[in-house]
Amino acid sequence: MYKELKGIIENSYSKYSNYKVACIVKMKDGAFFKGVNVENASYGATICAERSAILSAISNGYHKGEFKELYVMVSSGDIGTPCFLCRQVISELFPKEALIHCVSTTGEEKVYTKDELCPYPFGEEDLK
To answer: What is the pTM of this model?
Structure first.
């Protein structure tokens, strides 16, 4: 997935931070959805690459539990992990055994399960 992430990271619209992020989500049926971060002068309107890819899958008819893996790359050269807004969305939609691949632009990779990345989830049962 390294090559695919490198291929889309430059699509990022990150003129304020110059921190480019690319993400690809893999569905259980083998489909893939891509996303990049899109910043905005009103920072709260910024969308992260992870949520962009996940929401693309949802927009194309996929549902909670149909996500298999997530791959994310940041432009800094380091291994980056999803922010906590993205972790909340991942926690809501991915099964506990889903793999989250955090890949550097040099090819280094760390892999986490959803439960390792989101050990204390906030979910629908918390709203009852």
So the answer is: 0.93
